[in-house]
Design goal:
Elements lengths: L2 H8 L9 H18 L7 H7 L6 H15 L5 H13 L7 H6 L5 H8 L2 H11 L1 H4 L2 H17 L8 H13 L8 H11 L23 H6 L6 H14 L5 H22 L10 H10 L2 E7 L5 E7 L3 H21 L1 H4 L16 H18 L3 H23 L6 E4 L2 E5 L6 E3 L5 E3 H21 L3 H5 L6 E5 L6 E7 L8 E4 L2 H14 L13 E2 L4 E2 L8 E4 L2 E4 L2 H15 L13 H14 L4 H8 L4 H7 L4 H18 L10 H13 L5 E3 L19 E3 L4 H21 L2 H26 L15
Antiparallel strand pairs: 1-2, 3-4, 4-5, 5-6, 7-8, 8-9, 10-11, 12-13, 14-15
Helix pairs in contact: 1-2, 2-4, 2-5, 7-10, 10-12, 15-17, 19-25, 20-21, 20-24, 21-23, 21-24, 21-25, 26-27, 30-31
Length: 763
């Protein structure tokens, strides 16, 4: 089209503006740009635009474009030039690349394209998503994404393809922007929900290239850099041989143990090594390196702090290497041609992989963690409910006041943002997204209630769908009871749990929360299995949330962060004053412990929590001191039955006075006698010799006199030849010296330590 034809088109619907002044600026700017582009080679306006310097960088156009136009025309105003470019791009005279559009900012871009380019398609889309979501901040970002795609690719809303969405996503990431926050992919969810994409299109853009997916055995080995070619091939063959019997997470850990932690480490410290038959010094050096690892922590100033710590999984790493050697030795018997050349003596003995002390330490630490948290479980659960009610009240109060107004909830003062969103600033000036905070508070409460009533793993909880709620009719009474079907997770064993009234209330609240208000159905979302690195088919998952307008499954990290916010709300601490944090797996351990303490047989608890070994279930059971005390008291009761009955009668007054007088009679001139009540002195009151004498420090001088007297008497006896008395005097002398040393040692000991008095946490 000629320049005159283009300008005539801009004066007509749907490109013309209702305001005459706005139309004049657009036409004047478009005329100036076309005049300027006419000086560049090309048969179309698009070719001339690409040949101009404006196509190189949107920032350069923004800073120098009006200067280029002013040099060729009389138009000098920057706003006029920008309006002209907007009109030309909206009329599809010039197509701007996605990278160019992402780097160029225009306040009128979205509204102009919605009115000028496919207005019917935008109206249909708006009616489908609803006015409320259409006008939100995330909805605005989704509409901006659609306008950018239309300006770059042409056509209307119905012409957008999955490839266009992927190209826009790649352009965002190349420009340094993130599209994983929900709003960046919301437009894709709109298009798919309204049928604008093919039926086999992925449910979300995160299905396409966002997750790494499962790697091949060759990729698992090559990511850690094995230099020796034959050894590399052996490791790949070994993993291929075992991958059919392992889940992907276990295979990934096994590959890391054999490559990075074993063979790659040997190659770094022993250049040229090429055999599995390790010399004793090489094997010993590797075992010594495996004892520790380097822990890196980034400081607030940006520097990295390195600390050498003991490796907690040392036994597991060595177990993987030992299994590697033993498997090859066993396979060499069955396939000598394939595995025989690699068979070598295992450098790791069986005793080196049995770390009983570490197992006991872990068990003790986990039991102590359970004992600390189980008494506070009800308090934490109430705090989660109170936290959600508080944030719900804050959100309702925010929506009841106009933008920029101040409101108070529970003594906390907030000021609503002036843009009218669900954001506010607290008394410290911190910006708070109350809608997101209320979301996290609700799911923290739901997670606490679900986990503590089921004992499920967190990954099992996140995979619960509406289809998992089933009914069962009792054959005896005909009563219908609700059941919860737990999908296979760690042990691939499906199990069914009875839904208690408390759990039923939680599940019904969750269903009301996630149900689509328009259709009444629970939206279908796809979940990503971080262990298997695969996406599950779309399902009506219960733990899903509105992620900036787009329905998305929850992650374990979101649940953990939400539990941390509940802890910050209540300020719960342990005996040392440290925060008493609750991890999702703590609820599983507390569930098992409380069930067994309440009388549930261990094998029933094993079936409920889905353990394949009852020893694992008993490992979750924390033994409380009360159980030990009660068992000891029962033992004392049984022993008393065997004792004479008169030993347990009430003492008479004379017997009680004699017992009290015993303590007075134990006081001696040089200390106190520690003999038991009712026993006679076996040393005939030779107290200096007796080991039961507790010398009084104030009587040290007297003991020194006794010692000197004994030395003098021994000297006299030796002079007169009294052999019989010398032996007895030497025994008394040794006793006196021992008592003096005892006093001296006690005087050098540190002073008494004030242990304090126990107080309640509230006081």
């Amino acid at each position: 089209m000629s320049a005159d034809n283009v300008l005539d088109m801009l004066r007509q619907e749907p490109y013309n503006a209702t305001v005459e002044n706005t139309l004049w600026y657009r036409v004047a700017g478009a005329r100036a740009i076309l005049t300027w582009l006419a000086g560049y080679p090309g048969t179309s306006w698009q070719e001339r635009w690409l040949a101009s310097p404006a196509a190189e960088c949107p920032r350069r156009w923004s800073e120098q474009g009006h200067l280029w136009i002013a040099a060729a025309t009389k138009v000098k105003r920057r706003g006029t030039v920008q309006s002209g470019l907007l009109a030309l791009a909206g009329a599809d005279v010039i197509r701007l690349p996605l990278q160019w559009l992402i780097g160029h900012r225009s306040a009128q871009l979205r509204e102009f394209v919605e009115e000028a380019r496919d207005p019917a398609g935008f109206i249909l889309l708006k009616n489908g998503v609803g006015q409320q979501q259409w006008t939100t901040r995330s909805g605005g970002k989704a509409r901006l994404a659609l306008t950018r795609i239309l300006l770059a690719k042409g056509g209307g809303i119905a012409d957008i393809t999955v490839g266009d969405a992927l190209e826009y996503d790649a352009a965002l990431r190349q420009a340094g922007a993130s599209s994983t926050g929900g709003a960046g992919t919301l437009y894709y969810a709109w298009l798919r929900e309204l049928g604008g994409l093919p039926g086999d299109a992925p449910t979300t853009l995160r299905l396409l290239g966002r997750a790494t997916g499962q790697l091949t055995c060759e990729q698992l080995v090559d990511r850690h850099g094995v230099a020796n070619g034959p050894i590399r091939g052996l490791l790949i063959d070994y993993l291929e041989e075992r991958r059919h019997r392992l889940d992907y997470g276990t295979l990934d850990n096994l590959a890391r143990s054999l490559t990075r932690n074993f063979w790659s480490d040997l190659e770094r410290h022993h250049q040229g090594i090429a055999s599995l038959d390790l010399a004793p010094d090489v094997a010993a050096a590797w075992k010594e390196r495996m004892r520790t690892r380097v822990k890196r922590r980034r400081r607030p100033d940006g520097t990295v702090e390195e600390q050498v710590v003991e490796r907690a999984d040392r036994a597991l790493q060595m177990m993987a290497v030992r299994a590697f050697y033993l498997d090859i030795a066993r396979w060499a018997v069955e396939e000598p041609t394939r595995w025989g050349p690699w068979a070598a003596p295992c450098p790791i003995k069986e005793a080196e992989v049995q770390d009983g002390k570490r197992t006991k330490r872990v068990k003790a630490r986990m039991d102590q963690r359970t004992r600390e948290r189980l008494p506070a479980l009800e308090t934490f659960a109430r705090a989660a409910a109170d936290h959600h009610r508080h944030l719900t009240a804050c959100l309702e109060a925010l929506r009841a006041v106009p933008p920029g107004a101040q409101f108070t909830v529970g003594g906390s003062v907030f000021v609503r943002s002036k843009n009218g969103g669900d954001c506010a600033r607290d008394a410290t000036g911190t910006r708070v997204h109350l809608d997101l905070a209320e979301h996290r508070a609700f799911w923290a409460w739901a997670a606490v209630e679900f986990l503590r009533h089921t004992g499920a793993r967190i990954e099992e909880m996140l995979e619960i769908s509406h289809h998992c709620l089933v009914q069962y009719r009792l054959p005896t009474t005909g009563e219908i009871v609700p059941l919860l079907q737990i999908a296979p997770s760690k042990t691939d064993q499906e199990r069914v749990l009875l839904v208690s009234p408390e759990l039923s209330d939680v599940l019904s609240t969750i269903i009301r929360r996630v149900r689509d208000p328009r259709s009444g159905a629970i939206p279908l979302v796809a979940a990503y299995d971080y262990e298997e690195r695969v996406w599950s088919p779309p399902a009506p998952l219960l733990f899903q949330w509105d992620r900036a307008g787009e329905r998305s499954c929850m992650s374990g990290e979101l649940i953990r962060r939400s539990l941390g916010e509940v802890l910050a709300f209540i300020g719960l601490t342990d005996a040392t004053g440290q925060p008493l944090d609750f991890a999702p797996h703590d609820f599983r351990r507390m569930f098992v412990t409380d069930a067994i303490r309440s009388g549930l047989p261990p094998h029933i608890a094993q079936a409920i929590v889905g353990h394949s070994n009852i020893n694992t279930t008993m490992g979750y059971n924390a033994v409380y001191p009360t159980e030990t005390i009660e068992a000891h008291r029962a033992f004392i009761t049984r022993r008393r039955v065997l004792r004479p009955a008169e030993e347990y009668r009430t003492p008479t007054d004379s017997e009680w006075e004699d017992f009290l007088g015993h303590f007075e009679r134990r006081k001696l001139s040089v200390g106190t006698c520690a003999r038991a009540y009712g026993t006679a002195c076996i040393h005939e009151h030779a107290c200096v010799r007796c080991s039961l004498l507790r010398p009084d420090p104030a009587q040290r001088e007297r003991l020194i006199e006794i010692r000197d007297n004994l030395i003098a008497r021994i000297t006299e006896a030796e002079q007169h030849g009294w052999i019989g008395e010398i032996e007895g005097l030497q025994v008394s002398l040794a006793g006196a010296e021992a008592k003096i040393r005892q006093i001296d040692d006690s005087s050098r000991a540190p002073g008494p330590v004030n242990l304090g008095l126990p107080t309640s946490r509230q006081s």
